[in-house]
Design brief:
The complex is a heterodimer of chains A (393) and B (192).
Chain A: E1 3-7, H1 9-20, E2 24-27, H2 35-45, E3 52-55, H3 59-71, E4 77-80, H4 82-87, H5 89-97, E5 103-108, H6 122-126, E6 133-136, H7 140-154, E7 163-168, E8 176-181, H8 184-191, H9 215-247, E9 254-257, E10 264-269, H10 272-285, E11 290-295, E12 297-299, H11 303-310, E13 315-320, H12 331-342, E14 348-353, H13 363-379, E15 386-388
Helix pairs in contact in A: 1-2, 1-7, 3-5, 7-9, 10-13, 11-12
Chain B: E1 4-12, H1 17-30, E2 34-40, E3 49-57, E4 72-75, H2 80-83, E5 95-99, H3 104-111, E6 117-121, H4 123-131, H5 137-148, H6 153-167, H7 173-190
Parallel strand pairs in B: 1-4, 4-5, 5-6
Antiparallel strand pairs in B: 1-3, 2-3
Helix pairs in contact in B: 1-5, 4-7, 5-7, 6-7
The chains are: A alpha/beta (393), B alpha/beta (192).
Chain lengths: 393, 192
Amino acid sequence: MAIRERMSGNEAVSYAIKQINPDVMPAFPITPSTEIPQMVSNYIANGEIDTEFIPVESEHSSMSAAIGAEAAGARSLTATSSAGLAFMWEELLLAASNRMPVALALVNRTLSGPLNINCDHTDGMGARDTGWIQIYAENNQEAYDNFIQAYPIAEHPEVRLPIMICQDGFITSHAVENILLLEDEPVKEFVGEYQPEEFLLNPGKPVAVGPYAVSNFVMEARKNQLIALENSKQVILDVAKKFAQISGREYGLFEEYRTEDADYIMVIMGSAAGTAKEAVDQMRGEGHKVGVLKIRVFRPFPAEEIAEALKNAKAVAIMDRAESYNGNGGVLGGEITSGLFKKKYMVDCVNYIYGLGGRDFTVTNTMEIFHQLSDMVENGTEVEQYQYVGIRN
Amino acid sequence: MNEKIEIRWHGRGGQGAKTAALLLADVAFKIGKQVQGFPEYGPERMGAPITAYNRISDEVIRVHSNIYHPDYVVVVDETLLHTVDVTRGLNPAGAIIVNTAKSPEEIAPQVAPYNGKIVTIDARKISEEALGKYFPNSPMLAAVVAVTGIMPREVFLKEMLTSYEHKFAKKPEVIEGNMKALEMTFDAVENK
């Protein structure tokens, strides 16, 4: 039986952690993810779970300790945001290359400067090349559901990679909304006990973790890591299918909302996808054939699948909630158009940067973007191909 | 009630406007509504103007933006009337609820050209009489429920009693005062 509740995104992830009862959680607080270690600490103090909480002196240490715990054979996790993730950068690569299935609750927040505590995806996008699986959520429900699916994906023998479960800082992390929770038992059964194949505290099978590799081995190690990331795509889908059996909620690599006959599609990730869907419904009511493609799995990037989903559109708005300073567009803009190009699908794409540092993104913004696309296609109006939404001159 | 109600709260950091918005979401959830309660964070410091929002609906709420055309506005600190455009986008068929000792007629010039309904509630007087201290939260929450009609008085009071019993499990002595503040607020709104 599903439990009807209302809670914030941070509460939802903390509740999932409580139900999973992982072995070790090192953490250092940073807004807006601070509540997660705080709430988990409460669960521990109340004797509800027996996770070993390690208060560390920095995020560099929290990820190091999580890696150490994983290497010892313990299921570990941490939570962070923004500069905290940046401070983990070296360890992020270590976790992935040493094939440590650490889970990280990332509550997305921008990075300085200007100093700001609010949401954008600068932190997550900054970690895009670290080898982690990254899954994004539209709301508290998805943050909860994704976290429950995290370990079955990350610990799968064909994967064994760390995983980031991302949600938008404040917008979902601090918003109280309705949610359907699963009962403890089905969650525990779904996630299962962690049975690592190899670990340091296994006297029967000694292993080295993180040793030096001469030049003759590095490329093979990297390639194996890439294969694992590619494998994770099918595992993510398989885990989602199993999750649907216990929850009734279905997830894919991305969600297509009213795109089947859409002339204009907006590709977007995170909490703003819900806002965009609302705009789509209103515009559909006025006869506009518009739809939304919401990216759930950002790493591994489903470039081919997205290209297939977009190929029949007259134009696509690609929404990036982070600047990438390549002078040519945002991260999603680059990766999606590259996917289309490789499939030889020539679809007009306009790349929009929105919502930086918590700038609000509204139903009206969405509608204006769709109208701009149709104006471009139907009236031949020139449209800036890479632009900032709602920027003041 | 309408299919969907949108509420914007204006307060100052430390006064509990955010907490009140979350409590409203809580109590509306308990009667089966779809809810959203969320703060808009500026600089986090005591006394700075802050905004919080509620969406309450019978249908699933997907929008994750701030509220620009609220049905109701709640002003927890009347000094904000001078500095923040509190009635911006406010539905003329809705209402503005102001925590003040003044009358709606006295407040009207301060919120002009808005000419919709103005409800004033003296949360300080109520709170001090009921609780012996100034916590504007409970009276403002009750005022919103009374003015919007989100739920009947008795249902609200019953749900709030359960909430307080849970929230104040370790200091039950404050439950009675808070309940009294809610009742006094309802009386004040209903007698206007």
